[in-house]
Amino acid sequence: xxxxxxxxxxxxxxxxxxxxxxxxxxxxxxxxxxxxxxxxxxxxxxxxxxxxxxxxxxxxxxxxxxxxxxxxxxxxxxxxxxxxxxxxxxxxxxxxxxxxxxxxxxxxxxxxxxxxxxxxxxxxxxxxxxxxxxxxxxxxxxxxxxxxxxxxxxxxxxxxxxxxxxxxxxxxxxxxxxxxxxxxxxxxxxxxxxxxxxxxxxxxxxxxxxxxxxxxxxxxxxxxxxxxxxxxxxxxxxxxxxxxxxxxxxxxxxxxxxxxxxxxxxxxxxxxxxxxxxxxxxxxxxxxxxxxxxxxxxxxxxxxxxxxxxxxxxxxxxxxxxxxxxxxxxxxxxxxxxxxxxxxxxxxxxxxxxxxxxxxxxxxxxxxxxxxxxxxxxxxxxxxxxxxxxxxxxxxxxxxxxxxxxxxxxxxxxxxxxxxxxxxxxxxxxxxxxxxxxxxxxxxxxxxxxxxxxxxxxxxxxxxxxxxxxxxxxxxxxxxxxxxxxxxxxxxxxxxxxxxxxxxxxxxxxxxxxxxxxxxxxxxxxxxxxxxxxxxxxxxxxxxxxxxxxxxxxxxxxxxxx
Length: 562
Description:
There is one protein chain. The chain is 51% helix and 14% strand. The chain is of the alpha+beta class. It folds into 3 domains: 4-180, Formiminotransferase, N-terminal subdomain (Formiminotransferase-cyclodeaminase, Chain B, domain 1); 185-349, Formiminotransferase, C-terminal subdomain (Alpha-Beta Plaits), CATH 3.30.70.670; 362-561, Formiminotetrahydrofolate cyclodeaminase monomer, up-and-down helical bundle (Four Helix Bundle (Hemerythrin (Met), subunit A)), CATH 1.20.120. Strands 1, 2, 3, 4, 5, 6 and 7 form a 7-stranded mixed sheet that branches. Helix 14 runs parallel beside helix 16 (452-493).
């Protein structure tokens, strides 16, 4: 899985369009980064910028944003309603997919170090990147704002985490706070009412802060206070949720507007289901929901799995089908069409791999294979045949999970379908990876070979690329062979009306293994590292023998039951 992070720098300029554009333009100078949103606010004199990509390009883009903002924004002349202390006031990094919070925090530290050393701008790490507990809260870090920096920077307790502890550079640039934080989802739930008061009542039921406790009447009663004179609160049902009710004139309905501040604690589907319960208890109905902005793919897939599980349905279906399930279950198309390519972060980024074989239709793929180009060749075709094989096994598992009278077995078959889907996705990736491996060899042969150093570098590059071109078809062999466990399980205990499909799946898997074995063998011919060749061939023969034994066992089962 590609590592993807989001960066949401807030710059202290929301009125001068030329300055805002000067800052946001630098984001698009970095290849591999996609600028998603620019949201200026005149009253706050602040602009929120959002872009995503793989970590290294995003860090580069963030650095350029901080640099350009320090050049065009003079903090000594800044005013606005929002708290601030820097030209780039905050620069949070958010893990989206394929990366942990700890890894994201490490990237935040790397960015801060570079900002301090190369730009001379001081700053602090907060939230999950904080260097000490009392610096986790941004409000504490930013206390006193820009006007307090001259004293704050020389206070030992508030020595910057990066950059010089002096006000010289910070006089115009201010300081920057960099963090790693959880993804925030702006999520609205639609009600069959126009009443803001009733929408608020549900919001108070759900949100973490809950509602103020009152004596007697929960609406008009006297507010209960603690020993410090602060209002006592009755907590809501869900953690990491902020919420308020409002009326949307455009749609003529009331909504509950949620900020899900950590979807690992409270997900969209949990917020939706609890809101349904609270609405029902108050005589109201939820008609659907609405995403404002973007959401990680995982949040949609988790929602699909949640609703499929409630229905006792198999989870081993394609990603595309799961997105449909999530959209319909959450009612995300209630007010307007939901477009995955515009609302799911990973889809907005695209696959990042240019033209992929697996994005072609069947006819185009066969045309490409039949063309004069040597790639895609037998390795990619072997991987694709293996994909088709395990797809058949997965189909039998899904049919078995849905069979009338087998309701008590749905989870067992769902687990097999999930396994099959994992094998299928891995083999699909290997379809293109085998062609990429061939292209690496061609690139290595195209390197210059004039000087002795160039010749040596070219020879080494060819050898390295050839090893990779051996390892990829070996992975195809391993994966296709392992996938035969799904076909075996379905031949033994799956829907008997589809047992022939399990047999065809096993035949395809065995063909994938044998085809990939031929690619392993042919690519060892030009390799000088004989110990590597011997090791790979020995392992490949073992996988081949294993696959042939599995095929024989499965086909005997199938033939015996037909």
